[in-house]
Amino acid sequence: MKKIVSHLLRRLGRRPARVPVTVRLTRVPANTPAGATIYLAGSGNGWTTDDPAYALSFDPADGSYYLALPPGRGTLDFKFCRGSWPTIETDADNRAIPNRRYLYGQGPAELRLEVLNWEDQGGFIPPRQHSASPNVHILSPAFAMPQLRRVRRVWVYLPPGYAADAARRYPVLYLQDGQNVFDQYTSFAGEWGVDETLDQLAASGQDPRGCVVVAVDNAARHRLDEYSPWHNARLRRGGEGEQYVDFLVNTLKPFIDHHYRTRPERAATYVAGSSMGALIATYAALRYPAVFGGVGAFSPAYWFAGPSLLTYVAQHPPRPDTRWYFACGTLESPTMLPLMATVRDALQAAGVPADNLNFNALPDGQHAEWFWRREFAAGYEWLVDC
Fold first, then answer.
1. What is the second-level CATH architecture of the domain 2-118?
2. Which of 9-13, 227-231, 232-236, 352-356 has the lowest mean pLDDT?
3. Is residue 135 packed enough to be buried (19+ CB in 10 Å), middle (13-18) or exposed (0-12)?
4. What is the CATH number of domain 136-384?
5. Is the pLDDT reported for residue 70 higher than 80?
6. Which of 54, 168, 269, 339 stands 20 to 30 A from 205 (CA)?
7. Which of 62-71, 164-173, 301-310 has the lowest mean pLDDT?
8. Which residues contact 35 (CB under 8 A, 6 or more apart)?
């Protein structure tokens, strides 16, 4: 076992091929605040909006901003901002734009780009409409998190027919980044549409059991801290994941099981997320193997944890009967697919049989809500064994 883990750790530590490339903004909006720092946020840094390693420098010679990208391979999805999501770039009409994309090894050595607008500086933004289904409600806009001394909005989806059958009990799925799960009004870059997907599965007879879904909002500036128990030295973030998972298990789950007709046993309790949310979902199942019977890891940001995650797998072996569903795009980022495969192999080396490891690498997958929305149904059906 030690030899296998050592081999996997070496694989995790391999660096991608060095492909130098410079990003240069030749024009930014005239209303860009003086002295503003412009950042690149993308799949290469966990979509961190104020990562010093991805801060662009100002060139007084021509008024442009430039960044020598860290070496990479595969695909980099990204956007520009001024240090936060409210300051993200938009189009000429101040509407959201798709992620920019660069393919290492095939794109130019210098990307010359323009920013047309900043969301907070661009004037009127057309209002978004609420899209959550009627069977979604907000449990609390400020649910207490004693382990972190914070509060958080928590959403609950009740399956169709919940009110009609008072004797029926349901499995529960816990999801992260609650803003993006049900409602486009609260989402950053689109919603998962979990409510619509589950409603459709129920209506078609593909999900006769139904499921309660509990979605916890992320903490914005504390998101990276709460979604990893390990500290990332370069980003200076992380380290609160243990407290966050303790909140899920010791505070939120007992409340949900007491106030809703749930099946509280581990075989009917699942946890899932995307990107950093997938990292903390993975950790949750490892820290509490007697609580979670299934894990959904969509485009997991395992790079943030480094070798610490593999060491934890070796020291805290998962239960063999835990079901793991993995999905990512093959060109999402330089390390996405290799690290996802490495974690899968570590779980198998720790005793999880191959039948309980569902691994999906899709050539058109992107680090985006539309991709996770599309793949959610397949992951859900496999985890709950519809």
1. Sandwich (2.60)
2. 9-13
3. middle
4. 3.40.50.1820
5. no
6. 269
7. 62-71
8. none
Query: b/e for 236-264, b at 16 or more Cβ within 10 A?
Result: ebbebbbbbbbbbbebbbeebbeebebbe
Phi, psi of 6 (to 5 degrees): -60, -40
For residue 94, pLDDT beyond 90: no
Close Cβ partners of 37 (under 8 Å, ≥ 6 residues apart)? 55, 56, 82, 83
Would you say residue 9 has pLDDT above 60? no
Name, in order, each residue with C-beta under 8 angstroms of 64's C-beta and a sequence gap of 6 or more.
Answer: 24, 25, 26, 27, 58
Report d(CA 364, CA 371) in Å as an integer.
Answer: 9
Give the strand order in the sheet containing 100-103: 39-42, 75-81, 100-103
Which pairs with CB-CB distance under 8 Å and at least 24 residues apart come from 28-37? Answer: 28/65, 28/114, 28/115, 29/115, 29/116, 29/117, 29/118, 29/121, 29/122, 31/118, 31/121, 32/82, 32/118, 32/121, 33/82, 33/121, 36/82, 37/82, 37/83
Candidates 243, 323, 246, 226; CA nearest to 288 is 246
If you average pLDDT over residues 307-318, what whole number do you get?
A: 95
**Domain locations in the chain as residue ranges:** 2-118, 136-384
Reading the block at residue 69, the tokens are: 């990208």
CB-based contact 215:168 (threshold 8 Å): no
- Strand pairing category for 172-175 and 136-145: unpaired
The two three-digit tokens of residue 192, written as one number? 């998962």
| Helices 336-349/2-13 angle, 10° precision | 170
Q: Are 252 and 143 in contact (CB under 8 A)?
A: yes
Q: What is the pLDDT of residue 16?
A: 45
Run of H or E residues at 315: helix 307-315
- What is the rounded distance in angstroms from the CA atom of residue 350 to the CA atom of residue 329? 25
Lowest-confidence region among 11-15, 246-250, 339-343, 345-349: 11-15
